Amino acid sequence: MFEYLPSRRVLNALGALACAGMMGFALYAQHGLGLEPCPLCVFQRVAVIALGVIFALAAMHNPGPLGRPIYAGLLLLAGCAGMGVAGRHVWLQNLPPDKVPACGPGLDFMLESFPMLEMLELVLSGSGECADIAWSLAGLTMPMWVFICCAGLTALGMLANLAAPR
Q1: Are 128 and 100 in contact, with CB atoms under 8 Å apart?
Q2: Within 10 Å of residue 29's Cβ, how many Cβ atoms?
Q3: I need a surface site. Which of 70, 72, 90, 145 has the fewest CB within 10 A?
Q4: What does DSSP assign to residue 3?
Q5: Has this prediction a pTM greater than 0.90?
Q6: How far apart, in whole angstroms, are the C-alpha atoms of residue 132 and residue 144?
Q7: Quick one: pLDDT at residue 130?
């Protein structure tokens, strides 16, 4: 069934390139379009970078039977983290206006002022700027696209490291 797939190394390299493309667009949106990322956007970027690094390491390492499930597990963890943060962001964007939380402090301030767990809790609870929709494509907002891409990349990671025969 999988005899027509490229090698594991190629599939992992494609995953890394897709993550690099996502980050390239995120940086273009920030610096070219002037869309400042909210704290949840920054966390989504971290998840995409983690996916990209794991894919790149798997492509370079080309693991054997013992290493493949480890890479698959790491990709699953990073992909689910990205989907979780993006899903939370989509939820905030779809709240009725009267239910949107007030804007909170910036991520830099939170990193300097709060312990790590408290900062994570504040970011994941969301704030008003996270509910703003400044960009969409085909009716889907950027966090929606990140969710879809993380889901697809997670599936690619499972295919490349668990299912592909070579």
Answers
A1: yes
A2: 17
A3: 70
A4: T
A5: no
A6: 13
A7: 74
| Rounded average pLDDT over 20-41 | 93
- What does the DSSP assignment read for 54-80? HHHHHHHH---TTHHHHHHHHHHHHHH
Q: Exposure string (b/e) for 119-135, b if CB count within 10 Å is 16 or more?
A: beebbeebbebbbeeee
Average the pLDDT over each of 14-18, 68-72, 116-120 and give the range with the smallest value: 116-120
Give the helix/strand (H/E) hosting 136: strand 136-137
Three-state DSSP state, 4: coil
Locate tokens 């009267």: which residue?
A: 98
Q: Which long-range contacts (CB under 8 A, 24 or more apart) does 71-76 make?
A: 71/12, 71/157, 71/161, 72/157, 72/158, 72/161, 72/162, 75/15, 75/51, 75/153, 75/154, 75/157, 75/158, 75/161, 76/154, 76/157, 76/158
Contact 93, 131 (CB under 8 A): yes
